[in-house]
Amino acid sequence: MFPASRELIPPNRELRTASRELIPRRHREVTFSNREVSSGADAPSYPGGVSGIECIRGDITTQRVDAIVNAANSSLLGGGGVDGAIHRAAGPGLLDECRRLRGTSLADGLPVGRAVATGGHDLPARWVIHTVGPNRHRGESDPALLAACFSNSLDAAATIGARTIAFPAVSAGVYGWDAAEVARVALGAVRPRVQDFELIRFVLFSDRLLNAFIRAAEDA
């Protein structure tokens, strides 16, 4: 494990920690912070179109990015965990918009692995991208389903013109997926798309999840 860094560095530059210890080359596209970040106010800047992946401990509802991703259930009508927190922070307008989707294009709900965008309403983020993670307790154990949540969310972000996006650790909560596997699948899914966005951020609500993402980057 290596010390936290708040600097986002292009792949062709050296990334060093505060102690000047060189981070191995394979980690340079991913930066970490174990200091809780509750908003994007102190987020790094990205001169010249620099892009990268950032993993932080924080509250996804307060992120000042173009879009945040909601770990939704297929009903789109709110629930517990991240889903409930996002609906509460966004206010009743988000639920109203989700109900309209259920009454039109998503009458049967949002399938596992798919993603759909709505407005952010009272959130700092302009959009919310809803995705339904696989539930291991129901036998949904295919990593490809989990990877689809991240790749389809990036597709939805590109469609609406979002350049900065924040993800939670989809399926790492009550859906029963191991944090280490979620981290490995998530980073593997977004790395090929890193140049398409100014920032792909993973917002983890605990040190346990953040450490899982650090270990996944080290093992990549």
Key features?
single chain; 220 residues; alpha/beta; Leucine Aminopeptidase, subunit E, domain 1; seven-stranded mixed beta sheet; 5 helices; 7 strands; globular; disordered N terminus
Output the CATH class name: Alpha Beta
CATH H-tier superfamily: Leucine Aminopeptidase, subunit E, domain 1
What's the gyration radius in Å?
17 Å
Shape: globular
Which ranges are low-confidence, i.e. pLDDT below 50, for 5 or more consecutive residues?
1-28, 40-50
Mind describing the biggest β-sheet? 7 strands, mixed
Structural class: alpha/beta
Number of distinct helices: 5
What can you tell me about this protein's structure?
- The chain is globular.
- It has five helices and seven strands, in the order βββααββαβαβα.
- It is an alpha/beta fold and 220 residues long.
- The chain has a single domain (52-219), classed as Leucine Aminopeptidase, subunit E, domain 1 (3-Layer(aba) Sandwich).
- Helix 4 links the parallel strand 6 (164-167) and strand 7 (199-204).
- Strands 1-2-7-6-3-5-4 form a seven-stranded mixed β-sheet, sandwiched between helices.
- Helix 3 crosses helix 4 and helix 4 packs across helix 5 (207-219).
